[in-house]
Amino acid sequence: MASTADIKKGLCIEYSNDIYSIVEFQHVKPGKGAAFVRTKLKSVTNGKVVDNTFPSGHKIQVVRVERRKFQYLYKDDMGYNFMNNENYEQIMMPAEMIENHQYLKEGMNIEILYHSEKEIPLTIELPQNEFYEIKYTEPGLKGDTATNTQKPATLETGAEVRVPLFINIGDKVKIDTSTGEYLGRT
Hints:
Elements: E1 2-3, E2 12-15, E3 18-28, E4 36-43, E5 49-55, E6 59-62, E7 65-75, E8 80-84, E9 90-93, E10 109-115, E11 120-125, E12 129-137, E13 150-155, E14 160-164, E15 172-176, E16 182-185
Antiparallel strand pairs: 1-6, 2-3, 2-6, 3-4, 4-5, 7-8, 7-10, 8-9, 10-11, 12-13, 12-15, 13-14, 15-16
């Protein structure tokens, strides 16, 4: 058991029968009344963000979470298959546990958050930025570079993103896997 004095960014706690990571926190001492801690919590299992206020000195249940490196292998009817990079064991995860699964490509290294005591996977984190090949996009017209307009493009994984007009089929682009935003070209 810990108290609100131990709260820090990134700490995982058990709250409302779920595991939450602390995204933001602020200790508040008003002129009148007791001190409290205002927090923004993000669910590790489903990504839902919740605002909560804890009274100062309130006891919280800290959850130990481990990050383990895995490699994405393939997708089948049951879900997505990953291999542990340390002991080469394979696990299968359903699509519901993977945020932005449309950006997974074979051979990609990812991290899976595990509940240390129960040995259960909680969520999968993709790399922040990744390079993808453009499989299909409409050709841009010559002289269409004066404005910041974008066109739809399909990546090698089948995901749809918006790219600038000068991008063509076969180009490699850098994409933010959390937002699907175009970041650059290689």
